[in-house]
């Protein structure tokens, strides 16, 4: 995992890189990950992951202190059949990323994810730079997906640096 800070428009955007090994062939791994409907219930902090068309996903997740990220992700055509690129088209977090699939041996595929993001709300952007809650979210969700595909009963969940997840409570 790596976190890098880059400047742009006087705001700091973040870059995350994650690598995941799946005990599946390249074709099976790509096929299973492409079918988000089959595993979206495995997400721990995702509040919405709805495929709105063949190339978009309406996506939201919870962060600390009431932060609710929302974006619509659009798939971008890639020259390589083993890469999937995406970018956001609206919402309160700008995203762009690349997923790269490499079969490192039979029935073992390496999935590399690079994500560049910018939280539009200055307070939550500042909070993320200190607490790295988007990084914790991404790590947790990737572990959950891997646990689901590997048949592990309960995914490992890491705390978000002792920042409570505040939920709306109705009386």
Topology readout:
Blueprint (H helix, E strand, L loop, with lengths): L1 E7 L2 E12 L3 H9 L11 E8 L2 E7 L5 E9 L6 E9 L1 E13 L2 E12 L2 H10 L1 H18 L21
Antiparallel strand pairs: 1-2, 2-8, 3-4, 4-5, 5-6, 6-7, 7-8
Features:
single chain; alpha+beta; Alpha-D-Glucose-1,6-Bisphosphate, Chain A, domain 4; 8-stranded antiparallel β-sheet; 3 helices; 45% strand; globular
CATH architectural label: 2-Layer Sandwich
Shape: globular
Structural class: alpha+beta
> How far is the first residue's CA from the last residue's CA?
41 Å
Helical percent range?
A: 10-25%
Please state how the strands of the largest beta sheet are arranged side by side: 1-2-8-7-6-5-4-3
The count of DSSP E runs of length 2 or more, i.e. the number of strands, is 8
Describe it for me?
- The chain is an alpha+beta fold and 171 residues long.
- The chain has a single domain (2-150), classed as START domain (Alpha-D-Glucose-1,6-Bisphosphate, Chain A, domain 4, 2-Layer Sandwich), CATH 3.30.530.20.
- It is 22% helix and 45% strand.
- The protein has three helices and eight strands; from the N terminus they run ββαββββββαα.
- It has helices spanning 26-34, 122-131, 133-150; strands at residues 2-8, 11-22, 46-53, 56-62, 68-76, 83-91, 93-105, 108-119.
- The protein has an eight-stranded antiparallel beta sheet.
- A hairpin with a 2-residue loop joins strand 7 and strand 8 (108-119).
- The longest helix is centred in the last third of the chain and has 18 residues, at 133-150.
- It is globular and about 45 Å long.
- Residues 1-11 and 154-171 have low confidence and may be disordered.
